[in-house]
């Protein structure tokens, strides 16, 4: 399978079948709310920037904007969970039960735990909690369907083609590759790769992934958080995030475009698109909801 550019980030597809060897797990927690800079009206913000609003809560920019108010311009900003604030944390009830999760991924690697996914949900409280019950379940199914495709059914944790590993370091970035030339290979449910991806995701999540990219393969919650970071904040080669595609009614096909549209959509690789759609239809059936329209890209 081939590599792709998504938004300003690059991600690698999983290649091969060998299971990785895990290192001892390490934990990570949300950064204090007070650690984020105060929001400033009229200041330009990039997607992924996190600010502390006047009410003490943190918000993450889902789209670049010229300093719009986070509690008014909700298309541009979303609440962001942090320690010490009053932001919502992990939702009390996830629309996918553990039994349904196990049904979706009967052969999954034990690393990809349901508890790790639940622990990651607080990083993006709008995920699978926005809109009607049908919309919530459709978004969860869409996310998990794409994740299943990327990882062979939640089997692979790291990119299997080790020959690619040394290529994911861009020394033109001012921060370089402090973890090493070959440290930024694809990891996690949406195969995060390249030093600038780890920097952007880590900054958004309050976790130092630039210096410790191994957290993504050692800590299940961190791995899930990086996938949710992409789903909720990155448009990739598409025009909207996966989250917005599902909650705004654009349909599952637009989530494919945001993840790998440059290589799969518009007739470029219909078999890969069909694989994602098959996953989505199966998962919505498990959740007892209609898949909706616009399934293809």
Describe the structure.
- This protein starts with a strand and ends in a 10-residue tail after the last helix.
- Residues 1-30 and 84-92 have low confidence and may be disordered.
- It contains 9 helices and 6 strands.
- The protein is globular, with a radius of gyration of 18 Å.
- The chain folds into 2 domains: 4-27 and 91-287, Lysozyme (Orthogonal Bundle), CATH 1.10.530; 31-80, Seminal Fluid Protein  PDC-109 (Domain B).
- The chain has helices at residues 98-104, 114-120, 133-151, 195-205, 215-218, 220-233, 242-247, 252-264, 270-287; strands at residues 4-6, 9-11, 50-52, 58-61, 77-80, 192-193.
- The longest helix is centred in the middle third of the chain and has 19 residues, at 133-151.
- The chain has a 3-stranded antiparallel sheet. The protein has a 3-stranded antiparallel sheet with strand order 3-4-5, with no helix packed on it.
- With 297 residues, it is mostly helical.
- A hairpin with a 2-residue loop joins strand 1 and strand 2.
Task: Throw out a few tags for this protein.
mainly alpha; 297 residues; Seminal Fluid Protein  PDC-109 (Domain B); disordered N terminus; single chain; Lysozyme; 2 domains
The largest beta-sheet arranges its strands as 1-2-6
Assign the CATH architecture of the largest domain: Orthogonal Bundle
As for the number of domains, it is 2
The helix content is 25-40%
Please identify the structural class as seen in this structure. mainly alpha
Taking the alpha carbons of the first and last residues, their distance comes to 19 Å
- The CATH topology of the largest domain comes to Lysozyme
CATH class descriptor name of the largest domain: Mainly Alpha
How much of the polypeptide forms β-strand, as a percent range?
Answer: 5-15%
- Specify the overall morphology: globular
Number of DSSP strand runs: 6
* Biggest sheet descriptor: 3 strands, antiparallel
Sequence stretches where pLDDT stays below 50 over 5 or more residues? 1-30, 84-92
Number of helices: 9
Cα-based radius of gyration, to the nearest Å: 18 Å
Mean pLDDT: 84
Give the helices and strands as they follow along the chain. Answer: EEEEEHHHEHHHHHH
Domain Chitin-binding type-3: 36-80
Active site: 150
Disulfide bonds: 169-177, 265-297
Pfam families: Glyco_hydro_19 (PF00182)
